[in-house]
Amino acid sequence: MGDGMIRVLLADDEHLIRGALAALLSLEDDLMVVAEAASGPEAQAMARAHAPDVAVLDLQMPGADGVTVATSLRVDVPGCRSMIVTSHGRPGHLKRALTAGVRGFVPKTVSAQRLAEIIRTVHAGSRYVDPELAADAISAGDSPLTAREAEVLACAADGAPVVEIAERASLSPGTVRNYLSSASAKLGAENRHAAVRLARERGWL
Hints:
Blueprint: E1 6-11, H1 15-25, E2 31-37, H2 40-50, E3 54-58, H3 66-76, E4 81-86, H4 91-99, E5 104-107, H5 112-123, E6 128-129, H6 131-140, H7 147-155, H8 162-169, H9 173-187, H10 192-201
Parallel strand pairs: 1-2, 1-3, 3-4, 4-5, 5-6
């Protein structure tokens, strides 16, 4: 479109937040919300149908999270730049988002006016990461867990017994215990429940 309007897709599973945001962004002279979505798959479909300039994606959505959606949009709608809005700004999430080519990463506490400015920044080809989230990511560092340790720890997150985790992960109970013990030791956690909590707080699960 040659009218200078920035076409925006909003994806958030909280209807009230999404609706309020759409109304506030529509007050901006140069922004136009062309589509809304309540889940990851819906966001992907809407992006393909409407080819927005900027996709504003909630990190945690049903079906597929914002980073997964952003990854698919790089291929499906290459002209669309993605940004993540989240109330769970954990370090591991930020790293995943940046690896996926996300151009903006902001907390949900940001004002609508500031969000509009960041959408313009992202549309212009620049990147914006909330300074506080960036500082947290740097201080947390990379995950010490191997992919297998993280997988087994994730299986343990709902409190399942070792035998059940072993079945899910196609491992022997002894191997599962070894992975859980190793993960707990690396995280400095007294047990697997504490290890799950610590890994989640840092965005490593």
